[in-house]
Design a protein that fits this description.
Number of helices: 6
Distance between the termini: 33 Å
Strand order of the largest sheet: 3-4-5-6-9-10-11
Strand content: 25-35%
Number of strands: 11
Radius of gyration: 17 Å
Oligomer: single chain
Helix content: 25-40%
Largest sheet: 7 strands, antiparallel
Length: 225
């Protein structure tokens, strides 16, 4: 199923107040989206690097989850966000929870798609190898994802989305950029899908510490309700 951001139905916040975009480094993210069902923005952040005291920002990230996700995380009820951010078991439970997940990545600093693809490939391959799950099938599936990004140019404000259905070990990756038709690819290798989730949602080993921290605080607040 193709999901275009422009087509996403931005829902009203449950409290009944009008919807306001959440600004992540000056990039707007809706507080709720609808894929097959309404999903809420539970965490957001950026990927960046510091070179000679200069911060270079690459992407802004928003993580959308079914609100019911908190029902699968009850054993962490009452734990503060800073504790959850350091608890990889918590994020393992989040990744494995049978709820829909949607990660929206917006490009801040333009790069070639091949560069982004190599970053993804390296992160996923290393995780697979560490768990002794990197076989021929995984290599082929990962190669297809790298090829998908090979011909793309990730200019500023381009959008990459990762859609993880609730009860399926698949993922749909979509790429959209101004003036270009949306492109998408389905990843059907369960091990590769798991490691892509871990790249963005993997606790202390996640690609964005700010996203993990924000996600931990957001889920902590929900668990306390």
């Amino acid at each position: 199923m193709a999901i275009k951001f422009d087509d996403l139905n931005v829902m009203e916040i449950s409290k009944g107040v009008s919807t306001e975009m959440v600004m992540v480094d000056e990039i707007p993210f809706p507080p709720q989206i609808t894929t097959t069902k309404p999903l809420s923005l539970f965490g957001h952040g950026i990927t960046d690097i510091e070179i000679h005291f200069l911060q270079i920002k690459f992407t802004a990230i928003g993580v959308y989850l079914e609100p019911q996700v908190v029902g699968h995380l009850q054993q962490w009820k009452g734990k503060p966000g800073n504790v959850l951010a350091e608890d990889d078991d918590f994020f393992e439970a989040l990744i494995n929870a049978p709820v829909e997940k949607f990660v929206r990545v917006v490009v801040i600093k333009e790069i070639k798609g091949s560069q982004y693809g190599v970053q993804l490939e390296s992160a996923v391959r290393d995780r697979l190898a560490a768990d002794d799950k990197y076989e021929e099938e995984e290599e082929e599936a990962l190669e297809k994802v790298v090829e998908f990004f090979q011909s793309k140019y990730l200019k500023k404000d381009s959008v990459i989305t990762y859609h993880f259905p609730a009860n399926s070990a698949t993922a749909e990756i979509a790429f959209s950029s101004e003036g270009k038709e949306e492109a998408k690819i389905k990843v059907e290798n369960a091990n590769v899908v798991e490691m892509i989730k871990k790249w963005y949602l993997g606790g202390t080993r996640g690609v964005s510490a700010t996203t993990i921290s924000c996600l931990a605080n957001g889920l902590s607040a929900e668990l306390c309700k």
